[in-house]
Amino acid sequence: MQTIDDYILEHIDEEGSLLTALNRDAHIKLLYPRMIAGHLQGRMLKMFCRMLRPERILEIGTYTGYATICMAEGLDEEALIYTVEINDELRPFAAPYIEKSPYKEKIRMFWGDIEDLFPTFDERFDMVYIDANKRDYCKYYDLVFPALKPGALILADNTLWSGKVVEEHPPASDRQTQGILEFNEKIRYDDRVEKVIIPVRDGLTMIWKK
Q1: How many whole angstroms separate alpha carbon 28 and alpha carbon 31?
Q2: What are phi and psi of 207, to 5 degrees?
Q3: Which residue of 21, 41, 56, 179 pairs with 135 in a disulfide if CB–CB is 3.0 to 4.6 A?
Q4: What is the DSSP string of 128-193?
Q5: 82, exposed or middle or buried, with CB in 10 Å at 0-12, 13-18, 19+?
Q6: Are 85 and 65 in contact (CB under 8 A)?
Q7: In this structure, what is the dihedral angle of CA atoms 184, 186, 192, 194, given to the nearest 10 degrees?
Q8: What is the phi-psi region of residue 127: left when phi exceeds 0, alpha when psi lies from -120 to 50, beta otherwise?
């Protein structure tokens, strides 16, 4: 019997041959392939870019470059995405796929710690996609918020964290879960923004700067 997920993927835009190959390659070569955005979320990210038409996007956590390529697909001609990945061991995987993308001219790749790199970006961003170390989500948020234009959109991935956010007593030693919990509470009470959690895949929080 066909699942709802299968039905959805059959009735949305295809991901294309490059992203299909990237997805397949990630499942063969990488330890945590489920961390890629994937077909459905990738099409959503592209659609957000189509609708919002951001001039500058910041992505914290490139990983394979899947989401990067998806967002670049939806950008206007002069728009750019700055993508930052701290784990340079991923460079041999991600860089060739981004180089093969027909949207590569819209992508600026940086390898290193976002805290070191961000002050060097002389930009005001319209959109930020956060998908990196869950322990540091609050830190990323505080770092980028002053550089966001009013009306900017922050997208934070994995904010339901495999359902661990509703566990009664998550262990204090689980810093990833604690980081997501702290972030969700921080956003909940931040009156500078409007927010909504979309229960797609592992949870995607949309945060709009007033």
Answers
A1: 8
A2: -125, 120
A3: 179
A4: EEE-S-GGGHHHHHHHHGGGEEEEEEEEEE-SSGGGGGG-SS--TT-HHHHHHHHHHHHHHT-TTE
A5: buried
A6: no
A7: 10
A8: beta
What's the whole-number mean pLDDT along residues 128-138?
A: 97
CA distance linking residue 60 with residue 156, whole number of Å: 10
How far apart CA 62 and CA 132 sit, in angstroms, is 8
Q: How far is residue 63's CA from residue 187's CA, in Å, rounded to a whole number?
A: 24
Name the nearest CA neighbour of 58 among 11, 102, 107: 107
Taking the C-alpha atoms of residue 26 and residue 36, their distance in angstroms, rounded to an integer, is 8
pLDDT tens across 161-178, in order? 999 999 888 888 899 999
The answer to whether the beta carbons of residues 151 and 209 sit under 8 Å apart is yes
In contact, 181 and 156? CB cutoff 8 Å? no
For 140, the token pair is: 């990323």
Residues 6+ apart with CB under 8 A from 45: 37, 67, 70, 71, 74, 129, 155
What is the enclosing helix (H) or strand (E) of 24?
Answer: helix 17-29
Q: What's the token pair of residue 163?
A: 């359902």
Q: What is the pLDDT of residue 191?
A: 97
Helix/strand number for the chain, H first, E second: 8, 7
Contacts of 163 (CB under 8 A, 6+ apart): none
